[in-house]
Write a structure and sequence with these properties.
Elements (H helix, E strand, L loop, with lengths): L3 E11 L5 H11 L3 E6 L5 E8 H11 L7 E10 L7 E3 L2
Keywords: Hydrolase
EC number: 3.6.1.7
Family: Belongs to the acylphosphatase family.
């Protein structure tokens, strides 16, 4: 598992109600990235990406644009120890 990277991402802007979570899930699955995404009560979206460093970095870049209807203002990223996530899901 040492070749895996894990990033926790908080995305702010107009990112709820614009299919941001569904598009994030689809983008992550297309890149073979594990983890999850959810809406937060404060209007942000939180996501955890785990996979190869290149794929995780692609997902972080993707978050700056996100879904076509989104308007992303900021993307805050922190790195953590991988936790063997499996699959990618939308959390409620």
């Amino acid at each position: 598992m040492s070749d895996r990277t894990r990033a926790r991402v908080f995305v702010s802007g107009r990112v709820q109600g614009v299919y941001y979570r569904a598009n994030t899930r689809d983008a992550a699955r297309a890149r073979d990235v594990d983890g999850w995404v959810r809406n937060l009560a404060d209007g942000r979206v939180e996501a955890v990406f785990e996979g190869s460093e290149a794929a995780v970095e692609e997902m972080i870049e993707w978050c700056h644009t996100g879904s076509p209807a989104a308007t992303v203002r900021d993307v805050d990223v922190s790195y953590e120890e991988p936790r063997a996530e499996s699959g990618f899901s939308i959390r409620r």
